[in-house]
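We treat protein structure as text, and this decision shapes the records that our systems exchange. Because each token names a local backbone shape, the row as a whole describes the fold. For reference, a complete record is included directly beneath this paragraph.
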Amino acid sequence: MIPFSDCLGSLRFRGPDARKFKVIYADGGAITTNIDLKKGVVEAVQEDSGFRFDLCDELGSMGAMSWSRMCELMALLDKVYVTDHDKEEGYRNVKDNRPWRTIYRVGDYRLPKMNPDGTIGDVEIKACPCYNCGFLFPFDAIQIEHVKPQARGKDQAVIKVMRHMGLTEAPGKGGFYVKNNEVFRRGMRLPINSHLGEALNPKGNRRGAAAAVTVADDWETYQRYTLTIEGMIFLSVVCGMRSLPEVQQACMHSFVNLRPFCSTCNGKKTGNLTKKIGAMAWRHLG
């Protein structure tokens, strides 16, 4: 896929009307396009340093973004699409991405192995913990899958990436967001715990926890799925210069939307399976 940042250079060859983009926004979830330019438009206004991007509706200006900020965000979007979407491997090439491997604790581990005489020994091998159950598996046996299915998770994948870029009204929460966001935006490499480790944390608020849902929780969730003015400007421009399907593909097969699973968890990514495997693990450790 051609880098998204490359499309900005073609702005200077566009006429005034072609520098006006339909407003794309997310208000609590689904991505929506305002097709009526009279009611809302993002316009690229040429300046000495490049372009200024103005978001206006029928009442006037709602906000603006500088050329340098747009270039910065375009580079971040290119960074999130870490896979070579070729015919053979596609998004599974993320397994070769060094920051992704660091986040998910890919490394050399000593795993049990049965010897020819029936005794149990161990061998050092490249391995990775399954994000769902936490058990270590040889890295070649690990499967890469999307957080949300490709068939119905495209909008959520885009919003997830926008959230990691700081373009939603509220940030993400939980260990995955906090640590992964540091890697994604600042280049730090902090490994994360498995989903199992978070699910069994009595102080956490993962699925299965007996925590009441409050109005504040609902509002916070709503804000996490709502773009800021800056987010609306950026998404409108990048989709106007390229297309929404291209952005959805980049975000779906992205750094933040691909996780390692064992074959069992990948086939049954459910809370019940997590609890059952977790209970087995804790009984064994106890």
